Amino acid sequence: MILQFLHEHRLTSSFSTLMQETNVRLPGLDVDTVRRTTEAVRQGSWDTVLVLLQPYKLLPEHGLSSLLYEMVVDLGLQGESATTQMLVRRSPLFTEMVASDMSRYMEISSLATCPLAELQKRFPLEERQQRLDRLATKLEKRLPRMLPAQLLTRLGNPNIKPTTL
């Protein structure tokens, strides 16, 4: 709950430090993060997506493998094979996938080394925006949400009055 408070009040350095020191991640995303994540997916802004999702504990059922798959395909189609290979080897999201779904990790890993011509044949550029829109819609439905900290506090103690600004 402390992490959630820090996150909601944009205390980013305290949030990052506490998360690093405790090795705890938030169980769900706030509404604004879900919106920003799906918008970044629609734009193919993968660096933003990674930054937004890093603090959360996401599971395969949240659409994580679909996200990582499309990220590798999209970066590969942009000729970013070196970046894609490094991402697959070093990103914490991919590292977690190794433990939870090794076969999917291997499938995505093989895409990272796929030649550009083969990727272009399998994933036509004309369909890129459709793929990104489908993925964003899927994520919007599947990403876990968390209640605001203030609501959680009130649920735990009904005598607390709502704050006014």
Question: What can you tell me about this protein's structure?
Answer:
The chain has helices at residues 2-8, 12-22, 31-43, 46-53, 64-77, 81-90, 92-100, 102-112, 116-122, 128-142, 149-156. The protein is built from 11 helices and no strands. It has one domain (27-145). Helix content is 68%, strand content 0%. The chain is an all-alpha fold and 165 residues long.
Q: How would you describe this structure in keywords?
A:
disordered C terminus, 165 residues, 68% helix
Return the average pLDDT rounded to an integer. Answer: 78
Number of helices: 11
Oligomer: single chain
Shape, per Cα inertia axes: globular
Brief description of this entry?
The protein is mostly helical. Helix content is 68%, strand content 0%. The chain has helices spanning 2-8, 12-22, 31-43, 46-53, 64-77, 81-90, 92-100, 102-112, 116-122, 128-142, 149-156.
